[in-house]
Amino acid sequence: MAKESLSITDNRTGKQYEIPIKHGSIHATDLRQIRTGPDDFGLLSYDPAFMNTAACTSRITYIDGDKGILHYRGYPIEQLAEKSTYLEVAYLLIYGKLPTKSELDRWLHDITYHTMVHENIKKFLDGYRYDAHPMGILIGTVAALSTFYPDAHNIFDQRSREIQICRLIAKMPTLAAMSFRHSVGQPYPLPDNDLSYTENFLNLMWKATEVKYAANPILAKALDVLFILHADHEQNCSTTAMRCVGSSHSDPYSAVAAASAALYGPLHGGANEAVLTMLKEIGSKDRIPEFIKSVKEGHGKLMGFGHRVYKNYDPRAKIIKRMADQVFEVTGRNPLLDIALELERIALSDDYFVSRKLYPNVDFYSGLIYQAMRFPTTMFTVLFAIPRTSGWIAQWLEMLGDEEQKIARPRQIYLGEQKRDYVPIEQRR
Ligand code: SDX
Predict the structure, then answer these.
(1) How far apart are CA 411 and CA 319, in angstroms?
(2) What CA–CA distance (Å, rounded) separates 271 from 263?
(3) Which residues pair with 64 in a beta bridge?
(4) Bridge partners, 63 (sequence order)
């Protein structure tokens, strides 16, 4: 029986070491025993951007990047997208199981009755410029919620945790819609408890002078599926921010604000907005070869393509691409879709992209649907943050409950100046 271990010889000393292998990995701290002498700190592992480092064990989301597989708590994303709802998936991610009927009814009731925000939120929303990016507003307002609910700092109190989780999931759509309404100078509608989660979000976004907003059921369903697809994605950049900030025992609102800030970047959740900007800049199918050439020459990236984990087609992109036709039947076809489809066809036949295993990711088609649903591109990353809040919360809870976890504090390899004495300014050259 082969031994589950590494035999290491340190050629600096000739010493040999046996490092156990568990779950296909070694414990980095096992390397510390490899030293050249009593003053040596011990061997470090060096892994900028965590290209090959697991920072945690997890039981929430499973991705197989080569096979293009994505499971939430063991359930294939394709089945959840077809048969579940976003709030049911949020419950699954957070509590680890599909809810019973009574559990789901309770969950839906609690979320529905926590969608309102304190009236003071409107006051500091007025402090933002009229054209402030909604993502910048969302980051600020979700962080501010920690000041309205100071009991959120009791992160090990079960009851407090549950009410904060409910408030975060319930209020993110409200804050998101308010950030949009502020940018267009419109009043903030009240939540409507008769509506579903996504119908209510559309109500908060678009309600005008009608007595009761009525969402288009096809668009509300499409948005619910998009929320399911964006709910979690294991240890992505924003989840890492959530876990890292949460590891200092900060409150969940501050941690979600940090995660939202990470998501804002164009390499992460900001990519869906960047895809639309890219498609608009290309402008027509005949200009695609010129654009592809410029990317291959290193001038910018093909936004919405590539992924740290998926080296195959992102399964979420497949579902979104199929959904586009249903949405466009209601909204009318987005002309940029033709450019996107041709761009994908050309890229997937070009060795530059194929050799680097660059395929469409979740962001490549999602923006086209959002745009067809009349969301401004500045709202696209906000539309990512709303559903990802349940994934961030699930990961935060798992981190807090993991006995192996402590405050995150990576090591470094110091390559700077050695000790030197201060030089008075008159002696500096
Ligand atoms: C999300 O992590 C997650 O799970 C994220 C996410 C989630 O649900 O949380 O899935 C959501 O963020 C999806 C990704 C959205 N971002 C984009 O679409 C932006 C464009 N993509 C790239 O920036 C890039 O692909 C990343 C950031 C997504 C991944 O980058 P990696 O893994 O660090 O890979 P890399 O940058 O080292 O690229 C490897 C090679 C490089 O070429 P060489 O230096 O080897 O010559 O591929 C090239 C890169 O230049 N490359 C691209 C490219 N992506 C990578 N070249 C052109 N266009 C691209 N999009």
Answers:
(1) 40
(2) 9
(3) 69
(4) 70
Given this model, what pLDDT does residue 412 score? 97
Indicate which residue of 30, 232, 314, 363 is catalytic.
Answer: 363
Our answer to whether residue 39 is catalytic in this structure is: no
Q: How confident is the model at residue 334 (pLDDT cuts 50, 70, 90)?
A: confident
Residue 76: strand pairing partners: 71
95 CA → ligand 1 middle, Å: 31
C-alpha to C-alpha distance for 414 and 47, rounded to whole angstroms: 14
Q: Which domains does the chain have, with CATH numbers?
A: 1-46 (no CATH), 55-404 (1.10.580.10)
Provide the residue type at 111 as one letter.
I
Instruction: Tell me the helices (H) and strands (E) count for the chain, helix number first.
Output: 17, 5
Those residues whose C-beta lies under 8 Å from the C-beta of residue 384, and which sit 6 or more positions away, are 230, 263, 269, 272, 366
For 389-412, how does the pLDDT look when each residue is reduced to its tens digit (9 = 90+)?
A: 999 999 999 999 999 999 999 999
Within a 10 A sphere around the Cβ of 143, how many other Cβ atoms? 18
Q: How many residues does the chain have?
A: 429
Give the span between the Cα atoms of 234 and 71, in whole angstroms.
10
pLDDT tens per residue across span 31-56: 999 999 999 999 999 999 999 999 99
Q: Is 64 a catalytic residue?
A: no
Euclidean distance between CA atoms 44 and 31, whole angstroms: 7
Residue 66 annotated as catalytic: no
Q: With a 6 A CB cut-off, is 361 part of the ligand 1 pocket?
A: yes
Token output for 200: 């209510």
The residue to which tokens 């939202």 are assigned: 260
pTM greater than 0.90: yes
Of residues 110, 268, 350, 402, which has the active-site annotation? 268
Residues 6+ positions from 113 with CB-CB distance below 8 Å: 170, 193
Contacts of 351 (CB under 8 A, 6+ apart): none
356 lines ligand 1 (CB under 6 A): yes
Cα gap 44→314, rounded to integer Å: 34
Handedness of CA 392, 393, 394, 396 (dihedral sign): positive
Which of 271, 269, 217, 267 shows the shortest CA–CA distance to 391?
269
Classify strands 61-64 and 75-76 as parallel, antiparallel or unpaired: unpaired
Query: What end-to-end distance do the CA atoms of the chain give, in Å?
Result: 67
